[in-house]
Design goal:
single chain, 131 residues, mainly beta, seven-stranded mixed β-sheet, four-stranded antiparallel β-sheet, 11 strands, 0% helix
C-alpha cells in the first residue's frame, strides 16, 4: 500500500517562510516524479511545483516562481516544498502527489503538470497565510 504523508502546514504571517514535507512509503520513491498541488477554498486544485524522478528538472507555476522551491531526498523518501515570501493568496490545502515512471533518460526530465497523471496522493496539509 502506497502512502504519502504531508506535514509542515500551519498559520503564518504574510512575508514569512514555511517548508512542507511529504514522505512516501510502500513503493520506490526514487522512480516517481513528485508534485505539489494546492486547492484554495471554492477553487479548483492547481499545480504548484513538480520535480522529475531524477531531480534534474523542475517546474513551477507562474504564481510561485521565484518564491517556492521543490527538492527531494531519495535517501529519506521525501519531497520538500520551501515556500518563501508567502502571500495571503497562497492560503490553501497543499497536496503531495506521486507519478511512478519507468526509468529512462526521457522520463528523467519529465515534470507532469496535470493531476490526472498522478497515481498517488497525500491527504493534504493546510497552509494559512494571514495578512
Amino acid at each position: 500500500q502506497v502512502q504519502l504523508v504531508e506535514s509542515g502546514g500551519r498559520l503564518v504571517q504574510a512575508g514569512e517562510s514555511l517548508r512542507l514535507s511529504c514522505t512516501v512509503s510502500g513503493r520506490t520513491f526514487s522512480n516517481c516524479a513528485m508534485a505539489w498541488f494546492r486547492q484554495a477554498p471554492g477553487k479548483e486544485r492547481t499545480i504548484v511545483a513538480v520535480i522529475s524522478w531524477s531531480g534534474r528538472s523542475t517546474y513551477y507555476s507562474d504564481s510561485v516562481k521565484g518564491r517556492f522551491s521543490i527538492s527531494r531526498d531519495n535517501a529519506e523518501n521525501t519531497v520538500y516544498l520551501q515556500m518563501n515570501r508567502l502571500k495571503a493568496e497562497d492560503t490553501a490545502i497543499y497536496y503531495c502527489a506521486a507519478d511512478p515512471k519507468t526509468p529512462s533518460f526521457a522520463t528523467s526530465i519529465e515534470t507532469p503538470r496535470s493531476d490526472h497523471e498522478y497515481d498517488y496522493w497525500g491527504q493534504g496539509t493546510q497552509v494559512t497565510v494571514s495578512s
